[in-house]
Specification:
The protein has ten helices and nine strands. The protein is an alpha/beta fold. It folds into two domains: about 170 residues, HUPs (Rossmann fold, 3-Layer(aba) Sandwich), CATH 3.40.50.620; about 90 residues, 2-Layer Sandwich (Pantoate--beta-alanine Ligase, Chain: A,domain 2). The strands form two sheets. It has a six-stranded parallel sheet with strand order 1-4-3-2-5-6, sandwiched between helices. Strands 7-8-9 form a three-stranded antiparallel sheet, with helices on one face. Helix 7 links the parallel strand 5 and strand 6. The longest helix is centred in the middle third of the chain and has 16 residues. The protein is globular and about 55 Å long. The chain starts with 5 loop residues before the first strand and ends with a strand.
Length: about 280
């Protein structure tokens, strides 16, 4: 027990909590996280608490979704604060397994992905990322046996990948999206925002501003390609190094040629050493 919330450090311990809840006829929600919880995570926990009787928050920095050149070792780890924030938002158990609990010796199975995981967005720059995400999410879903799992819309491609995986594998839970939570100046909340210098933080809202301007232009009848190119230029001029800014179908993430159907604008760009992502609907 920490900060008024139960801690489960093994699958067996987690299943013990869930079995007790099920015996009382209670429904269960899971909020998967990698820790470093902020107000965006708290909003997901509150959404989960509104949809289910009991809420599990997993805190696990998943090594398999980091490439060798990425920031696994420096990813923020704030466990005590995470437990306090999860409890305050309405969670009942924090599932905090060791790496060896999730990936025991000899572990050799991963989830193979196509569809929205192979859309040429995050997967183009992080080719092993979604296999790691899908594999750990499948393990978390099976361990928790929850009725729903809640994911934030900020990681839009991840949301589509996990939704597709759960449907394709017939996993008995619903994936519930939670809206992106933003600072007052529009910057999407992220655990990585803490890496921004003061100067970079002042420039960061330009990413969301470019998306909003692009969406407004498309709604006003501007050709999609032209509006997207203008947004790319705005992001670059604001000091970012752009990985991508694309207009895609919200569910399949296939490219869209015109503004006649649903569109999601997605962007990833680096500001100094920090990589930020964002997305909005048109």
């Amino acid at each position: 027990m920490a900060d008024g919330i139960a801690i489960a450090d093994s699958v067996a311990a987690l299943r013990g909590h869930v079995a007790a809840w099920r015996a009382l006829g209670l429904s269960v929600a899971l909020v998967p996280t990698m820790g470093a919880l902020h107000a965006g995570h708290a909003a997901l926990v509150r959404l989960a608490a509104a949809r289910a009787d009991r809420v599990i928050v997993s805190v696990f920095v998943n090594p398999t979704q980091f490439a060798p050149n990425e920031d696994f070792s420096r990813y923020p780890r704030t466990f005590d604060a995470d437990c306090a924030r999860a409890a305050e938002a309405g969670a009942h158990v924090v599932f905090a397994p060791a790496v060896e609990e999730i990936y025991p010796p000899g572990f050799s199975t991963t989830v193979s992905l196509e569809g929205p995981a192979a859309a040429g967005l995050e997967d183009r720059f992080r080719p092993t990322h979604f296999a790691g995400v899908a594999t750990v999410c499948a393990k978390l879903f099976i361990a928790a046996g929850a009725d729903i799992a809640v994911f934030g819309e900020k990681d839009w491609q991840q949301l589509q990948v996990v939704t597709r995986m759960a449907a394709d594998l017939g996993l008995p839970l619903a994936i519930v999206p939670g809206e992106t939570i933003r600072e007052d100046d529009g910057l999407a909340l992220s655990s990585r925002n803490r890496y921004l210098s003061d100067t970079e933080r002042a420039a960061a809202p330009a990413l969301a501003a470019a998306l909003r301007a692009c969406a407004a232009a498309i709604r006003a009848g501007r050709p999609v390609d032209a509006a997207v190119e203008e947004a790319r230029q705005a992001v670059t001029q604001a000091g970012f190094v752009l990985d991508y800014l694309e207009a895609r179908h919200p569910a399949t993430l296939a490219p869209v040629a015109d503004g006649s159907g649903p569109i999601r604008l997605l962007v990833a760009a680096r500001l100094g050493a920090t990589r930020l992502i964002d997305n909005i609907p048109v």
